[in-house]
Amino acid sequence: MNKFNVVVTGSSGFVGQNLIPYLAYSEIRCISLSLRNNWELETLRQYEAIIHLSGKAHDTKNTSDPHEYFQINTALTIRLFDLFLKSSTRDFIYFSSVKAVADTAPDILMEDAIPNPKTSYGQSKQKAEEYLLSKALPEGKRLFILRPCMIHGPGNKGNLNLLYNVVKKGIPYPLGSFENKRSFLSIDNLLFVLRNIIEDKTIPGGIYNVADDEAISTNALIKIIAKASSSSGRIWYVSKGLISGMAKLGDKLRLPLNSERLKKLTESYVVSNEKIKKALNIDTLPMTAEQGLEKTIKSFQNK
User: Do residues 108 and 270 touch, judged by C-beta distance below 8 A?
Assistant: First the structure.
C-alpha cells in the first residue's frame, strides 16, 4: 500500500524521470499530469502533494520568444495553484530557480535576497513566485518554493559535458588565474530533499534554496573531471591582465572570447543551503559536491 499519492507535472524532464522511480522505493506513488491536456479540480482529488516541475527551461542562446516564458512558467503555474487552493491536496511544491532572484551573485545568495532577475526566464519564475506568495493558504496546506541551482546527474549533460569534452581532449584550460566558486546540485541531494518534504508534515513551507553543501571552483572542477575520466586536466595560469586584454580585443573583433563570456566563465555564484538543512534537521546532505560531480562525469564515459 502506498504511503502517499502525489501529482507530478513535467515528469518527462530530467528531474521527473529520476523522481518517480526514486519515490516509488519509498512507497510514494506519482501520477503524471500533463499541462497540455485539459485538467480540472477533479484531477487533484486524493493526492497529498503537487510537485510542479513543468516549465520552459532557460535558453542560454536567447533564441526563445520571451512571451513563452510567461505563458508557461507564470500563467500555467497560477492556474494550477488556483486549483490547488480549492482542492483537498496538502502541499504545493513549486520548482522555481535561483535565477528568479539573481543572474549574478557577488555575495552568498540567501533566500531573503531582493529579487532582481534580468532574463525573461528569471522574470517569469519570479512573477509566479509573487503570485503564489500573495495568496492566503487555507489551514493545513503548505507551499514550498524551491530555488535549485544548476542540477546535474547521470543523463543530464548540460554545461558540465562541454567542460568534460575540453578536459578529455587534453585542451588546456587557460583561466586558472581566475579563482571563483560555484554551487552545484546533484540529483541525489535534490531527490533526498523532496522525499523529506513530502514525508515530514512538520517541515514548514516557505522559500528554500537547494544546493550541495560545498561550492566548487572551476579549477577544482577540472581536477574532479580529470580524476573521474582518467584525463590529465591541464590548467594554464595565464595572467589576468593578458586574458582581460584579449577579451576586450574580442569585443571589438567579435571573437569567441569577449568580456561577457569571460565574466560568465570566471564569476562566482555561491548559493546557501543552510535554511533547507535546518528545516530538515540535518547538518549535511547525503552526497558531497565532489561525489555528485564524479558520479555525473563518470556517466558521460558510458555514452
Answer: yes
The lowest-confidence range among 9-18, 37-46, 59-68, 224-233 is: 37-46
Closest CA to 196 of 259, 142, 262: 142
**Of the candidates 59, 4, 13, which has an alpha carbon nearest to the alpha carbon of residue 195?**
4
The phi-psi region of residue 35 (left if phi > 0; otherwise alpha if psi is between -120 and 50; otherwise beta) is alpha
Question: Between vectors from CA 91 to CA 87 and to CA 96, what angle results, nearest 5°?
Answer: 115
The answer to pTM > 0.85 is: yes
Q: What is the CATH number of domain 4-148?
A: 3.40.50.720
List Cβ neighbours of 122 (8 Å cut-off, separation of 6 or more).
58, 97, 99, 100, 101, 103
Determine the Cα–Cα distance for residues 7 and 25; give it in Å rounded to an integer.
16
C-alpha neighbours within 13 Å on the C-beta side of residue 124: 22
CA angle (130, 64, 164) in 5-degree steps: 100
177: left (phi over 0), alpha (psi -120 to 50) or beta: alpha
Q: Residue 6: pLDDT above 70?
A: yes
Angle 294-267-102 from CA coordinates, rounded to 5°: 100
18 and 153 in contact (C-beta within 8 Å)? Answer: yes
- Where residue 300 falls among pLDDT bands split at 50, 70, 90? confident
Taking the C-alpha atoms of residue 222 and residue 231, their distance in angstroms, rounded to an integer, is 10
Average pLDDT, the chain: 91
C-alpha cell at 77: 503555474
At residue 18's C-alpha, the angle toward residues 272 and 101, to 5°, is 30
pLDDT per position as a tens digit, 174-227: 999 998 999 999 999 999 999 999 999 999 999 999 999 999 999 999 999 999
> Pairing mode, if any, of strands 150-152 and 49-52?
unpaired
Secondary structure of 192-212 as H, E, C letters:
HHHHHHHHCCCCCCEEEEECC
